Amino acid sequence: MWTTIGRLVEHEPNSTLRNPNRKSNHMNIAHKADFNNENRFELFLLDDNEKKVEWEEETRIPNTAVFTFNKEDHTLGNLLSSRLHKYDYVTFSAYKVPHPLFAKFELRVTTNGSISPKDAIVKCCKDIVQDLEVLSRSFTTEWLGKRIVHEGEAERLAREREI
Amino acid sequence: MDPYDIEGGAINVRFLHADSTRANFLIQNFDLATANALRRVMLSEVPTMAIDVVEVIDNTSVLADEFICHRLGLIPLNSKNVDDVLYSRDCDCEGYCEQCSVVLTLNARCTGNEVMKVYARDLVVSEGRPNDEVGNPVITDPEGLGSVIVKLRKGQSIHMRCIAKKGIAKEHAKWAPSAAIGFEYDPNNKLRHLDYWYEEDAKKEWPVDEHNANIDGAPQEGEAFDYDAVPTRFFFDVETVGGLEPDQIVTQGIKQLQQKLAGVIHELQGNDGMNGADDFGGAQSPQMNGAGYGGQDAGYTTPYGNASVWGGGGGTTPYGATPYGGPGGSGW
């Protein structure tokens, strides 16, 4: 990188390379377009050896487990915990974000014993994926339909103008 | 019968308005948590392109380098088929390369006596990028200028090399695909999720979206309150910044959410014995985790919308061969 910029500077005798001492991942590049907080990717990228979901059985209450979702937030937390309420075999589900500055949440699930909490979550996820698939299909068809109507109207207007 | 709900119990979408910048639609027979998750994903997790690193070669304008760099970052760039672009952090290259970035050069000098404006159209996109459209500055005004970056006086010049990368709005708002997403349910407050503060009469003092309220049905006079009622109809109004078509924002949002869930399923099911096989070693972008896993149990049914609504023939499971981009998928 240094050589590229060096060349550019030579080509342009008036140019100045700002901030040459700043060593970042990108070596010698002057500015991040905005660099107030350079570590915000920590919100959604797993650390080395970090797992997306960890879980622990709750020993004091049967059929209960606490799942820790790393690098996830209310988007998934609320989605899963409220969706789990809809299943008869889930007797309790709730989530909490232990600290707002750390991107993780804990989901606690109790079932009636006919299914393990883990399988309940897997089932729940699959159902949501399927619902979203239905939504996606419906959305695409409707959007295309709406576009055809729009184009038809535009054509009709154009024809009317010609007449 | 409700003209807006002709399909009975199945999840369905109705459009109120659709053009190149806006998609105003309603989703019916859906649930609040999923609708809200979709809203949040569309706001913060749909990938787009934005200028991320700027090499300042020359800047004699009145604005500071950082100031201009920040402005450059906020310029919307075309993000169509942004899937072709890799995340820089996942790319094998050092720094950036043609697979994971688009280079735009800004080089302007004012020679006349009048103040010169430098516009987004003056960003020159370099050869060699993942596809022909991605990274072009978004220009929607009739004059074809784009947004103003700086003004230059006689003798002032600016020369910058901008490296645009793929990213999501969770990292920085410049990657947000939508300017705003309208989200509403129960406009008549029949479910009483809202307790309006008022001076004299809440009805007079609080505005109601008449159009949405009519679709949702006005409450009957003296209607008994249903304690078990849940919202089922959700009004979305997705407005794009310009980088993605509004329908792309929605379909990409759905896809991102599905991949997020797929990642969880993968993680929880994969734990049964194939723990060691996962050698991704952490720092991967969300899309890489568990995307496109093959589910073993195709053809299960849900307690809500049943599979037959859209399933029909085989090979249409969301985990199967054609989840995204099948014949019926987002064809354009």
Automatic annotation (TrEMBL), chain A:
Keyword Phosphoprotein applies: no
GO CC annotation: RNA polymerase II, core complex
Matching SUPFAM superfamilies: RBP11-like subunits of RNA polymerase
Keywords: DNA-directed RNA polymerase, Nucleus, Transcription
Keyword Cytoplasm appears in the UniProt entry: no
Main location, first listed in the record: nucleus
UniProt similarity note: Belongs to the archaeal Rpo11/eukaryotic RPB11/RPC19 RNA polymerase subunit family.
Cellular localization per UniProt: Nucleus
Coiled-coil annotated spans: none
Identification of the protein by name: RBP11-like subunits of RNA polymerase
Gene Ontology MF annotations: DNA binding; DNA-directed RNA polymerase activity; protein dimerization activity
DNA-directed RNA polymerase RBP11-like dimerisation domain boundaries: 65-137
GO terms under biological process: transcription by RNA polymerase II
From TrEMBL, chain B:
Superkingdom of origin organism: Eukaryota
Pfam families, alphabetized: RNA_pol_A_bac, RNA_pol_L
DNA-directed RNA polymerase RpoA/D/Rpb3-type domain mapped to chain residues: 22-267
Record-linked PANTHER family: DNA-DIRECTED RNA POLYMERASE, DNA-DIRECTED RNA POLYMERASE II SUBUNIT RPB3
Quaternary state and interactors: Component of the RNA polymerase II (Pol II) complex consisting of 12 subunits.
UniProt family annotation: Belongs to the archaeal Rpo3/eukaryotic RPB3 RNA polymerase subunit family.
Official protein name in the record: DNA-directed RNA polymerase II subunit RPB3
